[in-house]
Amino acid sequence: MNDPAIEITGLAKSFRIGFLGRRKRPVLRGLDLVVHRNEIFGYLGPNGSGKTTTLKILMGLLRPDRGSARILGEPLDAPGWRQRIGFLPEHPYLYDYLTAAEYLDYAGRLFGLPAAVRAERAHELLRLLGLSRSAHLPLRRFSKGMTQRVGIAQALINDPELVFLDEPMSGLDPIGRHIVRGLIVDLKRRGKTVFLSTHILSDAETLCDRVALLRSGEILKLGHLDEILEVDVAHMEVLVTGVGAGIVEGLPGVLLRQAVGERWRLEVSEAELGSVVSALERARGRIRSVQPVRQSLEDYFFKEMAASGSLDQAWEAAD
Amino acid sequence: MGSGRLNRIAAVAANTFRESVRERVFSNLLVFALLMTLSGLLLARLSIRQHEKIIRDVGLASIDVFGLMIALFLGVQLVNKEIERRSLFPLLAKPLSRGEFFLGKFAGLGLTLGANVGAMTAGLLLTLWASGARPDLGLLRAIYPLYLGHLLVVGLALFFSTLAGPTIAAVGSLCLVVAGRLSDVIRNAGSVLPGAPSWLIDAVYYLLPNFRNFDFKDRVAYGDAVSLATLAWVTLYAVVYLGTVLSAGLLAFRRRELQ
């Protein structure tokens, strides 16, 4: 029980490319990673960085060139751990002619769950994911977001200890994203482990205890978000409303001005903070908040990617 | 084989059956096949004495041809569609081995074909009854081998679909089916191609699936007996050939990387 949820050692994988497949493109280069139990672990990286390949190897869809992995304390080729995990693949496509309820029943049968348990869990998951009214519609009539939610439901049908979610927010509207975020937090509250592969950094920042940043098949950074993201106490962020662009443009000592709807977000050096706040108050502006500038995960990600020249690669992969 | 394994194979088979019978191609072919069987009634009116034989001929030929089409159309898509659409990925992350999935898909389409053959047999017997002839259960001695042949086509289609896309799988399966139905021609190829080595002709003849073994349509339509021993031999041939083809397909599927 004290084993890590996931333990990956020296995992490497390359794909054959070219007309005759004589060249190899490395996708994972000796990956080492440990995911602890009862954490939400963010697996982040641009397109083509190896996130989905890692998941496919763990799920047995691809064979690694080198390296090994253990899931819930068992090696990949042991059958037992599959009974205790759930998996949502990227962009799941389900069965056109099945209903959501039939599909979840099918998924439950593969775990050997009794019919009554399958029916109860399917009903509960469809309710949690806002799909109760669509339970008996064929899946071909589902929107992309609804299909994604059914995909998440099938990953949870066996009440797994460990859930692998590959881009779970893909295709979801704001309500769907809110529901899924709540579901992930609830999984952690109930002692489960969540492995969240995503490139939506704001979700990772909101949800994850620890993250790994992946770049070209290697881990660039691994740790708690607080360790990764710097808090810059030398600069302060001021949010203000009720002032026009003319006033803001004329303020001395402001390092960054951003209009966000009716608000202005200003970055000010600590030494100039007093004079800037006084000037805003004199102009009848309303100060909404003053706090140290905290680097966002997105800021960090772009800084690191740009420093290593990976942004160009990411764009190429996206194209 | 443990009960857990059997339950998982049964789950995949039941799902495949449900998917297949809801596919438009299946229902369209089934309706068309039943219409063909019923058309025997009209054709029989053109004949003075042999109306019963014409109904039997048309009915058995419909079961043969439409069963073959369903086996080919659905068979080549069985595994390929699941890989291309990634619907297979969440399943293989569950306690379901590739072998269980593969056998479940085969069993599911086998059930679908069984339902098709059952519906068409009922249609043929009803047509005979409507024409005033005595519905003859002896027809089953021609229908059962046809069903075995259809299962073999599914096995070939599954084998090819683990190696290539649906188009190539369909062409490959169809070529083998056509060659297998012309096995007599292959056996006598020596008289047409005198230079061809006899060992090569024999090898091709024995390696190809001999679909002539499953064809008792004419004998039954004429009322000739097909012995149970013959049916047992045909069953053994189908089991051995199907077992070999499915094993090869399973081996290829186990090795396949699912990108």
What can you tell me about this protein's structure?
The complex is a heterodimer of chains A (319) and B (259). By secondary structure, chain A is an alpha/beta fold. Chain A has two domains: 6-228, Rossmann fold; 231-294, Alpha-Beta Plaits (2-Layer Sandwich), CATH 3.30.70.100. Chain A has helices spanning 51-58, 100-110, 115-128, 144-156, 174-189, 201-207, 225-228, 245-249, 273-282, 297-307, 310-318; strands spanning 6-17, 23-35, 40-44, 66-71, 74-75, 85-88, 162-166, 193-198, 210-215, 218-224, 231-241, 254-260, 263-269, 286-294. A six-stranded mixed sheet of chain A has the order 6-7-8-3-9-10, with helices on both faces. A four-stranded antiparallel sheet of chain A has the order 2-1-4-5. In chain A, strands 12-13-11-14 form a four-stranded antiparallel sheet. In chain A, a hairpin with a 2-residue loop joins β9 (210-215) and β10. Chain B is mostly helical. Chain B has one domain (3-255). Chain B has helices at residues 3-22, 24-45, 51-77, 80-84, 88-92, 98-130, 140-163, 166-181, 183-187, 189-192, 198-207, 217-221, 228-255. The A-B interface holds A 15, 56, 59-63, 79, 82-83, 85-89, 91-98, 102, 106-107, 109-112, 151, 154-155, 158, 164 and B 4, 7-8, 11-12, 14-15, 18-19, 22-23, 85-87, 89-97, 257-259.
Q: What order do the strands of the largest sheet of chain A run in, or round the barrel if closed?
A: 6-7-8-3-9-10
Q: Count of helical segments of chain A? A: 11
- Count of helix runs of chain B: 13
Q: How many domains in all of chain A?
A: 2
- Characterize the largest beta sheet of chain A: strand count, sense, and whether it forms a barrel: 6 strands, mixed
Cα(first) to Cα(last) distance of chain B is 30 Å
Molecular shape of chain A: globular
The proportion of residues forming helix of chain B, as a percent range, comes to over 70%
| Share of β-strand residues of chain A | 25-35%
Subunit arrangement of the protein: heterodimer
Mean pLDDT of chain B: 87
